[in-house]
């Protein structure tokens, strides 16, 4: 199952260490870290977030 993890580098609620741990546990997952975001990267950096999701979905579609 394809899994995309998008994390904000400055998240004070849930540290990046948790995202890194999730990425290690979820084999084959993809971790993207938005450097200027905190807890809500989709709100704080919407254009970058949408580009990440679009690339991920396009890559999945191409593999079918």
From TrEMBL:
Gene3D superfamilies reported for this sequence: alpha/beta hydrolase
SUPFAM superfamilies, sorted: alpha/beta-Hydrolases (SSF53474)
Protein's recorded name: AB hydrolase-1 domain-containing protein
Source species: marine sediment metagenome
């Amino acid at each position: 199952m394809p899994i995309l993890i998008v994390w904000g580098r400055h998240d004070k609620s849930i540290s990046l260490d948790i995202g890194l741990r999730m990425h290690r546990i979820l084999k084959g997952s993809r971790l993207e870290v938005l450097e200027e975001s905190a807890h809500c990267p989709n709100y704080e950096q919407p254009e970058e977030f949408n580009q990440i999701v679009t690339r991920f979905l396009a890559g999945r579609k191409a593999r079918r």
